[in-house]
Specification:
The chain is mainly α and 431 residues long. The protein is built from 18 helices and four strands.
Amino acid sequence: MELIESLFKLKDHKTSFKKEILAGLATFLTMAYIMVVNPAILSETGMDFNSVFVATILASFVACMLMGLLANWPVALAPGMGLNAFFTYAVVFGMGFTWQQALAAVLCSGVLFLVISISPLRSYLINAIPKSLKFGIGAGIGLFLAIIGLKGAGIVVDNPATLVGLGDLKSPTVILALLTFILMIALDKLKVPGAIVLSILATTIIGLFIGVAQFQGIVAPIPSMSPTFMQLDFSALGSSLFLIVIFTILFVDFFDTAGTLTSVANLSGKIDKDGKVENIDKAVFSDSIATIIGSIFGTSNTTSYIESGAGIKEGGKTGLVAVAVGVFFLLCLFLAPLAKTIPPYATGAALVFIATYFCKNLVNIDWDDISEYSPALLAAFIMPLTYSISNGIALAFIVYVIAKAISGKMSDLNPAVLIIAGASLLHFMLG
């Protein structure tokens, strides 16, 4: 325990070993879906499903260890949703690159990410984000979580006439999703430790008894990772289109990470009164290394997860949370069937619950200045409606600059904001 205390400073952060492990479990359960979803998406390119399954777990384990031990942040990492979709549907299917070439592009973007992260530029760019945009981004990420969770739970469904519609409220899975959400509210209100975890486990057990959740077993042999390990093809490196792919991946990863880290930093009290993010350098360094390692293992960009809010909501404050998540991922190499037993309605409800916590950020926006609140709200609106964190951030920066110019407040703009807005505009033009 002395070693743990020296590594994570639990007493200084007014937390305990038990609380941090519970927080890690809460985070893990809300993001465990990636172990199945990521290989399902990437395997459409021809990649071996089982190999990607192992790569996903090992990349997540190493990344979480880095974040926990180096940065001491309660942030978990895994192959990112959205980035894996871009990998499959845009790079491979849309542009005609092989999955091996796509992995090479991921590694190249990770190297560029690393170069930026060890320079003052990365920290400067993140810390230079205006407070209103940080709060708007935080709320937007919450709403993005909400729509993912509502869809996964079946509460929100596709509707050709209105884009989205209400699901079947008589469906057992929808009822259990709502029950999970209500249980979380009740247990949280009663200050029961592990409210999210207990609610997920309770309704999973109910689902098993009534037949809407399937027990997948306990253990299974560990698949080989050789079909994807070190299978990178740099033959397209001289292609201008390939370079665009690299910089697009970097752009998306940059903003997804910036948005996640600033939001989580706000939740965990790592943003000071001046809006500066505490110890951000080590956090982004860990994130960039994770992408490089993940590409070598055989998966798309490994990045910080917004689901880390689950652990923070449970009281997690240190890197021990991330380490715990990494260990839970590693255990799933042996317990994959058991992990797959957690049904979508339970994790979906958890995401919606976490989303409500993220949206509290909106109260801190300057509501007396339209040049501040309008771009912030735009970020919050665009993220869930376009299913993209990066789109929301990019458009918000562009509009922020324009709003300040119209308002005669150009002095509010720092060079970083102008650079990000310019890069955002370039991103949309190239896209």
